[in-house]
Amino acid sequence: MLHDLFVAFFLMLAGLTASGIVSNLYRLSVVGPGKSPGRGVYLAVMVVAGPTVLFNNATSAFLKKECSQAAFWLATALTSYWSLVIGMFVVSLAQAV
Residues in the chain with pLDDT < 50? Predict the structure, then answer.
């Protein structure tokens, strides 16, 4: 049982790491807000980078007292699950290669 929790935690952290890497690479590659490469590329990147962006926005809103504790923890739970799914994909892709 404890092993399964460690595996789930590892997968979640792998997904959050992949999300952070994709998010930062996208921020570095886009020159300015008017120079965006297109809506389709943005949406494709946000599928992977979404957990990091969501958690950053939720944290900043919570610290500024712009959202409730329930909203913050809901965003945290959604980020965790989304990261778990991305982590399962990343680890299965790494095993296939």
Answer: none
pTM for this entry: 0.85
* Other Cβ atoms within 10 Å of 23 Cβ, number: 19
The reported pLDDT for the residue numbered 31 is 66
The two tokens of residue 10 are 């590892």
Q: Calculate ∠ Cα 67-30-59, nearest 5°.
A: 15
* Helix, strand or coil, per DSSP, at residue 65: coil
| Residues, the chain | 97
Q: What tokens appear for 67 in the block?
A: 């959202």
Tokens coding 9: 């935690």
- Block residue for tokens 């962006």: 53
pLDDT 10s digits, 70-96: 999 999 999 999 999 999 999 999 999
Kindly list the distances between the CA atom of residue 24 and the CA atoms of 28, 70, 92, in Å, as whole numbers in the listed order: 6, 28, 23
Give the span between the Cα atoms of 93 and 91, in whole angstroms.
Answer: 5
